[in-house]
Design a protein that fits this description.
The chain contains eight helices and no strands. Helix 1 packs across helix 2. The protein starts with a helix and ends with a helix. It has two domains: 70 residues, RNA polymerase sigma factor, region 2, helix turn helix motif (Rna Polymerase Sigma Factor, Chain: A), CATH 1.10.1740; 78 residues, Winged helix-like DNA-binding domain superfamily/Winged helix DNA-binding domain (Arc Repressor Mutant, subunit A), CATH 1.10.10. It is globular, with a radius of gyration of 17 Å. It has 162 residues and is mostly helical.
Length: 162
């Protein structure tokens, strides 16, 4: 399980928008995972199982009003915030600026779409694993992932035009 903790933290950080909240979320999720270890099925993907627990814990906290997700607080490099990216050639922009804009675009997606993109493209889970984490059919994963990526392309259209 410890090999998946970094990935779980990254996923939690994206969900919560902050490192302190992410640490707290992962801590609670790991405690739940250990408490319910007997429910893990050997031979299945432990990473998917852990990510499911992280997401469920996040959704439970969100429902209880523990915190609000603010898209302006998503992980980003503070030094890069002062740099101007308007009108610049995207192929010459520092990777940090591209990352910042991608982070901001991801932050505007609804939680379910953001989770799909993160699980597929950042954590590289298979469609079947994502379906398990999100508790939806594989076909639904495919269509929702397509829609989420389409929205991201629209939000980042300025990079294609530059």
């Amino acid at each position: 399980m410890e090999t998946h903790v970094d990935g779980a933290y990254n996923f939690a950080r994206w969900l919560t928008g902050g490192s302190d909240e992410a640490e707290d979320l992962v801590h609670d999720a790991l405690a739940r995972a250990l408490a319910h270890w007997n429910q893990y099925t050997p031979g299945t993907q432990m990473k998917s199982w852990l990510f499911t627990i992280v997401r469920r814990t996040f959704l439970n906290r969100l429902r209880r009003g523990k915190y609000e997700v603010n898209s302006s607080e998503y992980p980003e490099n503070e030094e890069l915030l002062t740099m101007e990216s308007q009108g610049a050639d995207p192929m010459r922009l520092p990777i940090g600026l591209l990352r910042r804009d991608l982070d901001a675009a991801l932050g505007t997606l609804p939680e379910a779409q953001r989770s799909l993109v993160l699980l597929a493209d950042l954590e590289e889970l298979s469609l079947e694993e994502i379906a398990g984490v999100m508790e939806i059919p594989v076909g639904t994963v495919k269509s929702r992932l397509w829609r989420a990526r389409h929205l991201l392309r629209q939000k980042l259209a300025g990079y294609e035009e530059a």
